[in-house]
Design brief:
heterodimer; A: alpha+beta; Alpha-Beta Plaits; Gyrase A, domain 2; 4 domains; 4-stranded antiparallel beta sheet; elongated; B: alpha+beta; Multidrug efflux transporter AcrB transmembrane fold; 6-stranded antiparallel beta sheet
Chain lengths: 555, 435
């Protein structure tokens, strides 16, 4: 063996080891921790236990916490989402697999069709805005895009209360918003929340009662974190209202913040506002990001003519030092202090803001000024149980397809078939490894893509083997036949795979998630299969033909 | 070593004829039965997969939903009682329904004053004082009224009339949250309902009849009390309406998935599907012309179009609806068919460089013969895997796998009998034009 071949061997072995580690968080042993409510009934606990029969899972219960262990095939996000809908469950989370900490491996992302969830497309309707504008002219694409982007903030605000772990909310084109909400429990409520028109308003803060409310929370609420679900939060507000004997002209709300790098809003502290709306969202005409006199970031805005009078009132000297809360859908998102009377209709909000904070605030103000009408134009909801069934049948189909092809290859090509089979298994491992490592989403059509690549991957081997047979028949030596087989088959493999890649690439442009998943798995599978056939299988044959005594190939 | 060469090209006119016959047969049968059916993805509408109890059949479901004119199809094993119910698009949404109800009420009773509110109907299992409810709801400007049988604890909650409408803090959401938080034994009978309160005596039957006409369900009404009220519930959209209609008829059912596609989406998708197919053809032609020669592009594209067109005709023939997965299957056939063809072309190109003595037709015949074992082998293996998908892939991939299977069968045939012969025919045609 030459030195070059030793290096090649080491490279291949390392690659295989690395890929296997990458696949582990997806197929290896996983653990899920289920927290039951403290008042969960015995039936509710048993229902959870029945979901995880001892034949496939290990289950340990300690007080209200049930820990389930099982293989990634049986314990995945679809199962987690399903368990979360059981009555009496506080929460269910997947614990990290050790490989995820070690090598940044990730479990494979499951598409909504596999893990269950809701996919929504909202269409912005600009008719109202266009007819409101002074010159009644159509909005440009750029303006539409900007309006759609500012509506994102509003949607995030509304989605937040449903406790979706990883919501994806992003614009699609200039006038649509796409939402992916994995594992959402109550699709109907989500649709209702999105359907209501958003409201941004500006109300004065009552510092005296705000302090009382904060003291009340410290004395009467002893949990580490504020609750996340709306019902309990509302109840808590009602308790505060009663506890501090809030006068009727005031109202307690939560101040919400978004921690860095998350899409989730969390309530931080209670704040008491006047019931009277000082300035309506629509009193603002424009808002943009700029600088304050010290060069820090600030939000600038101008008011409408009517807004200017209101604004002068609110910012009159008697209110200096008070805070003006910006409220969106009953959540306080910011409360800047007033310190100068503004009569010009132009003002700014300054503070030590990060760019992201300023950006968010500007969008909220703009959204309040020009609310965009959103309509649901597409909805796809998959229940978690259907997702689990799809995963199960998908895995079965992959295994059956793989087994059928592998058995046939051994029967037809003997030892060469065995080598091709090993390549086939490697190919599937590489495919899943790359998918999870690069964070692609596996969908049901994606599974079809994996199955299809099994058939297509073996094509490279067939081309090479048929060519080798031909060369052997024409009387070439084993070494020559091996070398010629690979060389002459190369362009046929390259060209034929490339055309399939072209169509996969085109398919990937087809906007909808599931089909994209198919195109992506097919692309990755084809590239992996070319690598396996032309590099790893070829290397295997080079090793075999090192042995000069070989007179015959088992092919 | 002398190999047997099969003169494939001699059969090309038979092959052309065969393809044409097949196409005509598919087309006629397709047109006679249903024609090419575009699925929910393209025309808009809803698709619900639901699991029913024992003994439910397609006909029963269709009868229960006759108002929506649905397509019902059982899926999976017979004992799983799972059905796909799909309806094509209808225009109404809950908001427009509510508006229509209000419009026609105002038209019919011009003198009556209607107040519109989203209301909440609750039932409490313990005896409870109205005051207590009022105390809980103090912050949200809600009006609480006890209704119905005095023995029952049923209340309606709606927006209190305030002097300044803008200042009202009422929303049924908030009220619902507060009640759920404060009274464990309170059942929210129907959230998401609408209520109309009126102050003149009205004919209750005419009123409920009018509301029902729009497909809304009347929950409670009282025209004797002052003010009178009628609470009705409009399902959010058609899929919700279908769900409630099914629940009413068959008791508990579980909804496995719903799809709801608007008309704009459908046309957006069909446009982009068409665009993509054209882009794919262009890209492929350019690539083949670059790698081989233009005449090969013509042959390959003829074979590909042959496969795709026949597959579409096959969908019409079998009544498979054209949905997104089926389009994906068509595009896959597209790529796979070229894949097969290229291997033969590659061989023809190689042979034309080596063998200069024999005619082009013979080279083509020889190339097809030599690559035959590979063509059959890989196609067989790929078809094997797709067959596994067809058998086990579940409902979501059934149509996809079936169309793909057919396309692959046709693909093998067109690779041999269409692609290369067209190259020769094109060659001859060009010669004729030149001379």
């Amino acid at each position: 063996m030459t030195r070059g071949m030793v290096y090649k061997l080491i490279f291949i072995l390392l690659l295989i080891a690395f890929s296997i580690i990458l696949v582990l968080p997806t197929v290896g042993e996983r653990t899920m921790r289920i927290a039951m409510n403290s008042d969960a009934t015995v039936e509710q606990v048993n229902a959870v236990k029945e979901k995880f029969p001892a034949t496939t899972y290990t289950l340990i219960q300690k007080g209200n916490v049930i820990t389930v262990t099982g293989s990634g095939r049986n314990l995945n996000d679809a199962v987690m989402n399903d368990v979360r809908t059981f009555p009496g469950i506080m929460n269910a989370v997947m614990l990290k697999h050790w490989a995820e900490d070690l090598v940044l491996a990730k479990k494979i992302n499951l598409g909504l069709d596999l893990q269950g969830g809701m996919h929504l497309v909202l269409q912005a309707d600009f008719n109202k805005i266009e007819s409101k504008s002074v010159d009644k002219k159509k909005l440009s694409e750029k303006e539409k895009t900007e309006l759609t982007h500012q509506a994102l903030e509003l949607i995030r605000n509304r989605i937040d209360k449903f406790g979706v772990a990883e919501p994806s909310i992003r614009p699609r084109g200039s006038d649509a918003i796409e939402l992916q909400l994995p594992g959402v429990k109550d699709p109907r409520a989500v649709k209702k929340a999105i359907g209501t028109t958003g409201q941004v308003e500006y109300r004065l803060v009552d510092e005296e009662y705000s302090n009382k409310a904060r003291v009340w929370i410290q004395q009467n609420f002893h949990e580490k974190k504020l609750p996340e679900d709306t019902d309990r939060l509302d109840k808590l507000l009602a308790d505060i209202t009663a506890g501090i004997k809030l006068p009727r002209n005031l109202e307690a709300l939560w101040d919400w913040e978004r921690p860095r790098d998350t899409q989730k809003l969390i309530p931080v502290y209670p704040i008491v506002l006047q019931r009277q709306v000082a300035i309506a969202g629509t009193d603002i005409s424009k808002a943009w990001i700029g600088n304050d006199e010290y060069g820090g970031l600030a939000v600038h805005f101008t008011t409408t003519a009517e807004g200017a009078t209101k604004f002068a009132d609110v910012t009159a000297k008697k209110n200096w030092g008070k805070r003006l809360a910006i409220v969106i859908d009953d959540k306080v998102r910011s409360a800047p202090k007033l310190n100068v009377q503004i009569t010009s209709g132009q003002a700014m909000i300054s503070g030590s803001f990060t760019y992201e904070e300023v950006n968010t605030l500007t969008r909220i103000i703009k959204e309040g000024a020009l609310p965009v009408d959103l309509r649901i134009i597409e909805e796809r909801t998959v229940g978690p149980s259907l997702g689990q069934d799809s995963i199960e049948s998908g895995i079965k189909a992959v295994l059956l397809g793989l087994a059928a092809v592998m058995i046939f290859m051994i029967l037809y090509y003997k030892v060469a078939g065995l080598i091709a089979d090993i390549g086939l298994m490697l190919n599937t491992i590489f495919q899943v490894a790359i998918l999870s490592w690069l964070g692609f989403t596996l969908t049901l059509p994606g599974i079809a893509g994996i199955i299809l690549t099994v058939g297509m991957a073996v094509d490279a081997n067939v081309l090479i083997y048929e060519r080798m047979k031909e060369e052997l028949r024409s009387g070439k030596s084993v070494r020559m036949a091996v070398s010629l087989g690979f060389d002459r088959a190369f362009w046929a493999i390259f060209d034929s795979n490339l055309t399939t890649l072209i169509s996969a690439f085109v398919l990937a442009q087809f906007g909808t998630g599931p089909i994209k998943g198919f195109a992506v798995t097919l692309t990755i599978g084809l590239i992996a299969s070319m690598f396996v056939a032309l590099y790893i299988t070829r290397f295997t044959y080079e090793m075999i033909s090192l042995n000069k005594k070989i007179r015959r190939l088992s092919i | 070593m002398k190999e047997r060469i099969i003169p494939f090209l001699e059969y090309r006119y038979i092959a052309y004829g065969l393809s044409l016959t097949l196409f005509v047969v598919f087309l006629t049968v397709g047109i006679v039965t249903k024609g090419l059916v575009l699925g929910v993805d393209f025309v808009g509408g809803q698709k619900i997969i639901a699991k029913f109890g024992k003994g439910v059949n397609e006909l029963q479901i269709r009868t229960a939903l006759s108002a929506y004119n649905p397509t019902v199809q059982q899926i999976g094993e017979a004992d799983s009682h799972e059905f796909i119910i799909s309806t094509k698009l209808q225009e109404d949404t809950s908001a427009t329904t509510d508006e229509k109800i209000r419009e026609s009420l105002t038209a019919k009773y011009p003198k009556a004053k209607f107040q519109d509110i989203d209301a909440l109907l609750i039932s409490v299992r313990d005896a409870i004082e109205v005051n207590k409810l009022n105390a809980v709801l103090t912050g949200v400007d809600a009006e609480v009224r006890k209704i119905g049988d005095p023995a029952k604890n049923e209340f309606i909650i709606y927006k209190k009339e305030t002097a300044d409408k803008k200042k009202s803090r009422y929303s049924s959401d908030k009220a619902e949250g507060l009640i759920r938080g404060s009274f464990e034994k309170a059942d929210i009978l129907n959230s998401l309902s609408f209520m109309i309160v009126f102050d003149n005596p009205l004919d209750e039957n005419a009123l409920t009849g009018l509301v029902k006409k729009y497909g809304a369900a009347v929950m409670k009404s009282d025209s004797v009390a002052r003010p009178g009220y009628i609470i009705y519930k409009i399902a959010m959209d058609e899929s919700d309406q279908i769900k409630s209609a099914l629940e009413k008829k068959f008791g508990s059912i579980s909804i496995l998935s719903t799809e709801n596609v608007g008309p704009a989406v459908g046309s957006y998708l069909s446009k982009s599907a068409l665009k993509l197919i054209i882009v794919a053809i262009l890209l492929m032609t350019i690539y083949l012309a670059y790698r081989f020669e233009f005449r090969y592009s013509v042959g390959a594209m003829a074979a590909v179009l042959h496969d795709v067109i026949l597959s579409v005709a096959f969908c019409g023939f079998t009544g498979v609806e054209i949905n997104i997965p089926v389009v994906a299957a068509l595009l896959t056939i597209f790529g796979y068919s070229v894949n097969d063809t290229i291997v033969i072309f590659d061989r023809i190109r190689e042979s034309t460089q080596i063998e200069t003595k024999i005619s082009f037709v013979d080279i083509v015949n020889k190339s097809i013969t030599i690559t035959m074992s590979r063509t059959i082998l890989t196609s067989f293996l790929t078809i094997l895997t797709v067959f596994a998908l067809f058998l086990l892939g579940g409902e979501g991939l059934n149509d996809f796998a079936m169309v793909l299977l057919f396309g692959m069968f046709v693909g093998v045939y067109s690779t041999v009998y269409i692609a290369s012969p067209v190259v020769i025919s094109w060659e001859k045609l060009m010669m004729k034009i030149k001379s």
